[in-house]
Design brief:
Elements lengths: L2 H11 L15 E7 L17 H8 L2 E7 L5 H10 L3 H4 L8 H4 L6 H7 L3 E6 L36 E2 L5 E2 L3 E4 L10 H16 L6 E6 L7 E4 L32 H4 L2 H4 L12 H31 L6 E7 L18 H4 E7 L32 E8 L3 H8 L54
Parallel strand pairs: 1-7, 1-9, 2-11, 3-7, 6-8
Antiparallel strand pairs: 2-10, 4-5, 9-10
């Protein structure tokens, strides 16, 4: 079936969720890419400082949601909520200490649903939060056709890997390294990209569609990244957050005291007061420099994935989703973490590339996703052709990806749905791909939450 006919059938099916598959359609693949702790500091979201050409190129051929929100700004609850399309009050996971199938209900996940429809499902890197929240198995074999892959070099992520001014190794927050000196001569996201490309090649000629989820660890702390990326962001060109002070009258319960950072040796050496700091301005600039550098490093790995998809002839049959689990504070309101309900930690990037719908094949034979080297001197400029301003939520992703793949969309959960294995607490956004957004969308709201152990920072 030609790509144009397949795209037409998909468009006709977006408003209807009755059939399990679009008639005559062979079920497109899904490449699901997730970053960790990435706020929308991307060129496609209007950030003029960051260098993210590969993600920007993807956005130019995608539908970009400008106001997407996580349900809780911490990894395990957000990821479990997104992958089950259930809110934290339903999964009963607010931290890292429970597995929803045991403590809440046997809820189906998005990859599990695709697996049940004949997809070969694979996980690379950080998709589910590892450990207790995913039963120490990344929810295998429920969600995945094969055991999840974790890069071996991630075992060293919190060890003393960062060479300090004293020439000794430390467990620092700011940890730009010579990759050749790291264990195995590599880093986790490089290994994850390698494995994801290998899996794409292994599935390129398979008759069964695939669902490949790839989770990159950056820009999560520590900023253990290749040192050359710092050169993209000279420290003298960095600036402080526009609102760097803790607001007067801020309720103490609203503030998170960034304990994760305080445990790092270089931050601990600053001898900061608890809970509000502040961090010295020169160190603030260093944090912001390393975060932006980590984004560009992660962007390179995304570019490697997309160019492999292109080279294998899969770009015209594979839906690509890019998102983050939540954002991160870079000094706004005196915060340097997640763990709150501020906009900078709950708002995330979210985009969907749907071949033949958000973008059409280039008749000249040009590549869809040519790899862009951020260190090239050439400047790249991309324009988002389809943006959605209405607020959406990460719980909307499961029903939307299902609809875009031509699968029956899980029914809405009714009331308290603790015993319902397959239903969604999100909205199916597939209709937004057919209809142009006009004006304000009534009752377009997003809910984020964060429980606290006390009414003062702990």
């Amino acid at each position: 079936m030609s790509g144009s006919v397949r795209a037409l059938l998909l468009l006709l099916a977006l408003d209807s969720v009755a059939p399990e598959r679009v008639p005559g359609r062979e079920g497109g693949n899904v490449l699901f890419i997730m970053a960790d702790d990435l706020r929308p500091v991307l060129g496609c979201y209007g950030d003029s400082l960051v260098k993210s050409p590969n993600i920007d190129q993807l956005a130019s051929k995608s539908q970009v949601f400008l106001n997407a929100y996580a349900q809780q700004a911490v990894c395990a609850p957000s990821r479990t909520s997104m992958l089950t399309s259930r809110r934290p009050d339903t999964t009963r996971l607010y931290d890292f200490n429970s597995y929803w199938r045991v403590h809440a209900g046997n809820y189906s996940t998005m990859p599990q649903y695709f697996k049940s429809k004949g997809y070969f499902t694979m996980s690379v890197g950080k998709i589910f939060h590892p450990g207790v929240p995913s039963n120490h198995t990344d929810d295998y074999p429920y969600s995945w056709s094969v055991p999840a892959y974790h890069p071996p070099s991630n075992l060293y992520e919190n060890e003393k890997m960062c060479k300090g001014k004293d020439k000794q190794l430390h467990a620092n927050l700011l940890c730009a390294v010579n990759v050749t000196e790291q264990p195995g001569g590599t880093l986790p996201d490089i290994e994850s990209a390698d494995e994801a490309v290998r899996l794409l090649r292994s599935r390129a000629n398979s008759s069964a569609p695939f669902f490949l989820a790839v989770g990159f660890y950056k820009p999560h702390i520590p900023y253990r990244i290749p040192q050359e990326y710092l050169s993209l962001y000279p420290i003298e060109k960095m600036s402080l957050a526009p609102d760097p002070d803790v607001p007067k009258g801020l309720p103490p319960v609203a503030y998170a005291p960034w304990t994760d950072l305080r445990r790092r040796e270089d931050v601990s050496a600053l001898n900061l007061s608890f809970p509000y700091g502040p961090i010295p301005k020169d160190f603030q600039l260093g944090i912001r420099q390393h975060y932006y550098a980590a984004v560009s490093y992660m962007d390179r790995q995304v570019g490697r994935l997309l160019s492999a998809l292109d080279e294998l002839g899969l770009a015209d049959s594979t839906q690509v989703v890019f998102l983050s689990d939540h954002g991160w504070s870079l000094g706004e309101h005196g915060e340097w973490a997640k763990y709150s309900n501020f906009d900078v930690v709950t708002r995330v990037p979210l985009m969907f590339y749907v071949p033949g719908v958000t973008s059409h094949p280039d008749s000249s034979g040009m590549s869809t996703f040519p790899f862009i080297d951020v260190f090239d001197k050439a400047e790249f400029s991309f324009t988002n052709h389809k943006e959605i301003k209405r607020m959406v939520e990460l719980v909307d992703i499961f029903p939307t990806v299902s609809a875009l793949a031509g699968l029956r969309v899980p029914k809405p959960c009714i009331g308290i749905s603790l015993q319902e294995e397959l239903c969604t607490e999100g909205d199916n956004l597939a209709n937004t791909f057919r209809h142009r957004e006009r004006g304000e969308v009534a009752e377009a709201i997003a809910f984020s939450q964060y429980p606290r152990p006390a009414d003062t920072p702990q």
